[in-house]
Amino acid sequence: xxxxxxxxxxxxxxxxxxxxxxxxxxxxxxxxxxxxxxxxxxxxxxxxxxxxxxxxxxxxxxxxxxxxxxxxxxxxxxxxxxxxxxxxxxxxxxxxxxxxxxxxxxxxxxxxxxxxxxxxxxxxxxxxxxxxxxxxxxxxxxxxxxxxxxxxxxxxxx
Length: 158
Hints:
By secondary structure, the protein is mostly beta strands. About 5% of the residues lie in helices and about 35% in strands. Strands 1, 2, 3, 4, 7, 8, 9, 10 and 11 form a 9-stranded mixed beta sheet that branches. The chain has a two-stranded antiparallel ribbon with strand order 5-6.
């Protein structure tokens, strides 16, 4: 029932050698298409889209390492000091061999991300690109997560 562009996000979590990690749990949080989180800490939570939870979990396929989820493309949200943040999805990643959960964000390459305060904290453009999901075709985005090595995804200390 939630209004907005329906999308699918898929990817693989890769280790330092580029091999898929096949036993990963990804937890995702996001705002609805209007940029509202259905969470009590969002002052507009009562206005969130009907039926939209803004939270979910997905596990990787043990044979291929592929993970995917269907959702609504999130809208821009207000951050601290009323600074707008670009549409994004927040990930928490846990797997065997990881001592702590890893936090990261996924932004959309086809959105204007230039003013996002979190992305602008990342100094080098190639590092910023590790947080951008590629639009494969209408309604489908690809976001691979690299745990270490060349092209390592930026992880956030939150």
